[in-house]
Amino acid sequence: MNNVEDPSQLCAKGCGFFASPSLRNMCSSCYCDYLKETLLKMKRKSSHNDSKQQSVVDSSDKKDANTTTATSTCTRCDLCKRRVGLMGFKCRCGGIYCGSHRYGNEHSCAIDNIRKALQREALSRQLNAAATCKADKLNCRI
What we know:
46% of the residues lie in helices and 3% in strands. It contains 3 helices and 2 strands; from the N terminus they run ααββα. The longest helix is centred in the N-terminal third of the chain and has 26 residues, at 28-53.
């Protein structure tokens, strides 16, 4: 009969909110903080162990690593060189463009031009085939 959980149990961290036994007798916010702390401790331990196992890296390798991360974080429009950040639009041609150059006709996209040329060619073939196959149904026409 004592299977019913006590709903008036307070957080073990002492913040004053109600706790849950499934969250180690903590409230939800304290439990999230607890999880973050444990993850940080685990990362610190793993990075500490990795640093012991790794050999000394040349300073030139460090410079190369720093330059690659710096260039990847700063994204700019391929046409106007405006910073786009997270709002950059990636085109099928592989470029990243700002909001005003995101459409293919704005940045002369090679992929769109090829696709349009193929569509025009297919349409002209269809129209020529339809015009040649159509028989004149009125024999009395001059």
